[in-house]
Amino acid sequence: MEDLDFLIERKIRKLGNHFDISRNKALKMYNLTSNQSIALLFFDLHDGAMISDLKEYLKVSHQAAQKIVERMRVDNLLSISVSEVDARAKQVNLTTHGKQLCEILKNTRVSFEKQIFENLSNTEKETLSKLLDKISID
Questions:
Q1: Which CATH class is domain 35-135?
Q2: Ranges of each domain in the chain
Q3: Quick one: residue 48, left, alpha or beta (phi over 0 = left, psi -120 to 50 = alpha)?
Q4: Interval 15-46: pLDDT, tens
């Protein structure tokens, strides 16, 4: 049984590495990292969210989330303002350029996901999702 566990773990790692390599290759033309693209899509769904919200979503340190947001602010993808609720918190919004890039990413993501999962039926996708939820460490 231990060998099977190891084999499954290796397959999951290999698949994760494949996703990262493919995603980073596709994002290179937009000068984005994988985490930056995820952050952009996060702020598209959660307009006005705080940097601390991104930190929780990405499961990274506050400093790492700040660096992601700051780099994207410099690239004119995000704007940062002081929260009206808590002056210590930074509220984040997409800029016009960020919104445009986000639409491109959504279309690219749909194409990428379609390619990856095209050989699975909807039932198999649901089963896979449930199995991954079962072993998830969130």
A1: mainly alpha
A2: 35-135
A3: left
A4: 888 888 888 888 898 999 888 999 999 999 99
